[in-house]
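Session log. Operator J.P. requested a structure for one protein chain; no other inputs attached. Running the standard single-chain path with token output.
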Amino acid sequence: MKIKRQKVAKKTISFYKFNFNFREPFQILIDGTFCQAALKNKIQIKEQMPKYLMGEVQLCTTSCALKELESLKQLYGAKIILQRFQVRRCQHFKNPVPASECLLSMLEETNPHHYFVATQDHAVTAGLKKIPGVPLLYIILNTIVLDKPSQSSLDHVQAVQLGELVSPSQQQSIRSLKEEQGISQKDGERRGKKRKRKQSNPNPLSCLKKKKKKGMPTLPLKKTEQGEKKKRSRHKKRKTEGGDNMSTPPLTNQ
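Structure written below.
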């Protein structure tokens, strides 16, 4: 049973690695309900979580989750466990909110920080299933279980395969290429927009006649300009012996 569960987990992890660019160390966002279930079922989270996910992990929580456990004295043991993990900064540092609301705000719309969420809270589970690319961990019968990908994650992957969306891995590769070439996002937006050319008068400099180069002989124009009369060609008249001008050559006696 344990081998089968790890095979399913390995398949699910490879799904998130390939489609949502998850990498080690995996960041596990944990709340007080998960720690309480682990304490009840005698599960060592730091020891069993890396073995189950077959990789390095970073266990973390938020200040709102810690303050929620401080107000609940019956969950003192869960508070001691949760205090051992890294505390990630959230938006509610001055005005704390319930842990369920805080965890969902950390995921934003597309889970850009690639968090795994470990919780037993049904409100958090229902909320994160609407966000694509969020792996869910929970405890059942003394074991940690990685839930199968949600329908929103499957729909997102299908849309990427059809070419309707760009996957996070492709977005990251595009950003890295732009950074290498020194292209900023604003430059790309400016280049993408086409400017409409205004209709303007022709350039007066382009209408000027070409200047003749100095030292070059000018060739006579063969064609006459319009309005000028063609010059008549004159034939030289031959003079006869008598001195009379003859326009035609003399006739020889037969």
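Operator note: The chain has a mean pLDDT of 81.
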